[in-house]
Design a protein that fits this description.
Elements: H1 2-20, H2 23-37, H3 40-65, E1 85-94, E2 101-109, E3 114-121, E4 128-135, E5 151-153, H4 160-171, E6 186-190, H5 196-204, E7 209-214, H6 217-226, E8 235-239, H7 242-252, E9 256-261, H8 280-288, E10 290-300, H9 306-318, E11 323-329, E12 335-340, H10 349-366, E13 375-382
Parallel strand pairs: 6-7, 6-9, 7-8, 9-10
Antiparallel strand pairs: 1-2, 2-3, 3-4, 4-5, 10-12, 11-12, 11-13
Helix pairs in contact: 1-2, 4-10, 7-8
The protein binds 2-acetamido-2-deoxy-beta-D-glucopyranose.
Length: 383
Amino acid sequence: MFERDRQHLFLSQTTNNNNIGSRKLLLHNLKQIIFGRVSGRWMYRLAKYLFFFILFGYLFWIWIQRPQVIIDENFGESDLANTNSDITKIETLCSPITSTCYSVVDIINRETSTVQRAMYINGFEKEYDTVVQLIPPKGMTYETSDTRIWAINNTAITTQYVAAMITQLFTTSALPLKSAGDNERELLCIGLGGGNFDMFLHTKRPNIKITIVELEPVVVQLAKRWFGVVDDDRRKTIVKDGLTAISESKINGDKYDAVILDACDNTKEMPCPAKTFLTSSTLTEIKSILKPMGTLIVNILPLKKQKANLEKVMKILLSHFPVCIKMQMSYEANVVVSCLPYSLASDNLEDTKQLILQRAEKASNDLGIHGVLEYLDLTIVLK
Ligand SMILES: *[C@@H]1O[C@H](CO)[C@@H](O)[C@H](O)[C@H]1NC(C)=O
């Protein structure tokens, strides 16, 4: 207390001197203060403080220089979405077969006051398998209601690549824009995820027969529990290896209007499509289970060396199919490719492209996904 008083006194003295307006006087007084009035005891104290100050500074410097080991408790969650989002973990299940773990999270977007639910593979926190829109109970918001009980909006598509996969069904006439004759239509989807693609289609076009094969029983469990995935007589989820399903279809002579390959493995460079499907024998089999005007739609997700990896997949696909239509997403790393078992005349390719673009426009408008579907370019690639 005494100490502080004295400092205060010094300060007021210098201020007073300043008020006099003479710099010389101020300097003189300062000298007096420092050298005149400061006793030996004071000098000792000053030295003591200086010593501790330097010691503390030194220790602080050593502390800063220590090896930086930062344990990030929130690994994988901090990057999930922008800062205007809150992420709540709902459930994680691990596959007893592959020991891959899948997590379900709810993402609250405070900016738009909407809630989305997503599934991701642990280790791929930045690449959601599925994102669906939740419907709040009447008069409720995320602040007044537990989002876990909210319903799923099956007619909403939130990711560009799912919108692209749906649109690709129509661009090449694998499916007609009109629903007449849907009873005759049949799709085989390999890879369920949260079922956004097939549940959307099933809701919009309930008469199309859709079979979904999913390798991981835990994914089916999570999809049924948290993503509103339901089976009925026109839409069925089967726990099975996609490779087996393709072979069985061939043996049974089943023919599909489209085979949708949305299966991923856990390679970091390019998780989708799962490499096991890119063998010559499997692609030959897939081609053989397509109807004459059918299409194979592939979700490609190149995360590293994107150009090279994409080209690699395209080359393999084009060695079995004469034509592929490629759509590069604008915000997502995904590239959606639709490959046809028949060839297109190469002399009027530009006309064909315009026709495909028109159909893409019409289909995405009719289905209400035009706002989501945003791609950089649509390219027709010939063998
Ligand atoms: C579901 O999503 C669609 C498309 O975004 C939207 O038009 C519709 O209003 C949503 N339904 C509900 C109940 O929120």
